Amino acid sequence: MSYPFAYKLFPAVLSVFSLTVAVSCTHSHSDAHDENVAEEGHDHEDEIVMSPADAMRFGVMAEAAVKTPFCEIVKVSGEVLPAATDRSVVSAPTSGIVRLVSGIEQGKAVGNGELIASISAGNMTGGDANKMAKASLDAAKRELDRLTPLLKDGLITKKEYNDALRSYEEAKSAYSPAAATGRASSPISGVVSELLVSDGSFVEAGQPIATVARSQRLTLKALLPSRHIDMLPRIASANFILSHSSGKAIRLADRGGKVLSSSMSTADNTPGYLPVYFSFDNHGDVVPGTPAEVYLIGTQRADALTVPVGAISEQQGEKFVYVKVEDHAYAKHPVKVGRNDGRRVEILDGISEGDSVVATGTSFVRLAETSTVVPEGHSHNH
After folding, report:
1. Cα separation of 157 and 162, whole Å?
2. pLDDT, tens digit, for every residue of 50-81?
3. Which of 365, 325, 322 is closest to 41 using CA atoms?
4. Model pTM?
5. Can you tell me the distance from the alpha carbon of 129 to that of 137, in angstroms, rounded to the nearest whole number?
6. Are 193 and 289 in contact (CB under 8 A)?
C-alpha cells in the first residue's frame, strides 16, 4: 500500500530532508479503502511509515533479535593505567629551574633518550652546586697528580698521599657529569603519561619530572561496587569505553586481555569499591590516564534474547524499540531490558526472537514518530 505524501520532520532540518511518514494514523477514507485494508489483514494504527528510499538515505537498518550466549555484566567506572613494568620515571639530574621542551605534554610520544626538560641553576642564589663540585674535583685531581711522583721519590708520607686520594674520590662522587648538562631525558620509548612539574618551577636533584609509559601493554583498573562482591570470583573479562571516544566499546578479548588481580579490600581512595585489574595490548588508540566506562563480564547465559545497544530508545524513563513490520512500516514496542555488555542489550520482555528490530538509525525513526505534521485526512491516536 502506498502513502503518496511527504512531510518535513523539524524546521531546523527543513532544507536537509523530509520523510514520507504517517504516525499513529486512523484512516478516514472511503469504505472501499477500509475494505481493502481489511482484505489485506493489516491494521496501520500506531505505525510509523517511512519509505524504503528514506530508510536507506538515513541509514535506518534493522536486524533480527536473536538468542545468543550472553554474559553477566556489571557497569562500573575505571581508568586506563600504564603497566607497572612498562613505566619509567624521568628525574631531575640536578637542582634548579625546569624548562620543559616545547611540545612535551601528557600523551606525547617520545623516543629513548629524547630530551624532556633542561634544568638550570645558573641564576639561583648560591650558584650552581654542580659547577662548584666540578671545580673542587679539578682542584683535588691537580693535588693528587702533584703528590703522586713525590710519593715515588719518598718526599712525602703515605698518609699525605692517601689524604689527597680520599679528597679526590669525595670530590668525584659529589660531581655528576649528567647534572652538568642539566638534561633530563626519557630512558625508554613510549608516551608521556604524567607531567609532575610545571615549566619554570624549582626542582631538587633526583625529583621526578615526568613518567613515560610504553604503549604496548596497559592496565585497566575497574572499581566494582561492594554490593556486587559476590560477582568478584566470577569476573572473567571486560569491555570498556574511553571517556573521549565516540562510544565504541573495546573488548579485552580482542586485545589479549587477562585478569591480573582483584581484591576483597576496598580501594585506597574510593571506599565502598573493590579494585579489579586487567592487562591488555594497546593498538595505539588508548592513552594511559584516560577514564573509562567499564563493563565487567562474569557468568554466561546460553540463550539470552539480545539486540544492539543502538536499538534502544528511551522516552520519559521508558525503554522502547522499533520493530519493522513491513518494508515501509515500523511499530514502537515498550521493552524491559536486562544487562548490557556495551555492545548488546538483553531484552527480558516486549519482543520475541526473530522480530526485525531497528538497530541503526533509530533516532530518525523516532523523529518520524514525533513529527507533528499529519497528512490531510489522518489523525494521531496516542
Report:
1. 9
2. 888 888 888 888 888 888 888 878 889 999 98
3. 325
4. 0.42
5. 12
6. yes
Would you state the cell numbers that stand for residue 79, as one nine-digit string? 581508568
Instruction: Tell which residue, 348, 274, 268, has the closest CA to residue 307.
Output: 348
pLDDT at 76: 93
Nearest residue to 251 via CA among 241, 236, 260: 241
Q: What is the pLDDT of residues 248-258, one digit of tens each?
A: 889 999 999 99
Query: Please, what is the angle between helix 158-174 and helix 129-152, to 10°?
Result: 160
Whole-angstrom Cα distance, residue 24 to residue 44? 7
Where do we find the cell 482484505? 39
Q: Quickly state the pLDDT bin for 319 (edges 50, 70, 90).
A: very high
Distances (CA, A) of 216 to 21, 54, 227, 280: 51, 45, 34, 9
Backbone angles phi, psi at 354, to 5 degrees: 95, -15
For residue 288, which of 221, 197, 207 has the smallest C-alpha distance? Answer: 221
CA distances from 33 to 22, 37, 59, 377, 379 (A): 16, 6, 32, 13, 16
Long-range Cβ contact pairs of 28-36 (< 8 A, separation 24 or more) = 28/377, 28/378, 28/379, 29/377, 36/1
pLDDT band of residue 340 (cuts 50, 70, 90) is confident
What does each C-alpha distance from 377 to 22, 25, 30, 36, 50 come to in angstroms? 11, 9, 11, 17, 18
Strand order of the sheet with strand 115-120? 183-185, 115-120, 96-100, 202-203
Which residues 6+ apart lie within 8 Å of 176 measured at CB?
A: 93, 94, 130, 133, 205
SS3 178: helix
User: For residue 284, what is the DSSP state?
Assistant: S
CA distance 71 to 298: 6
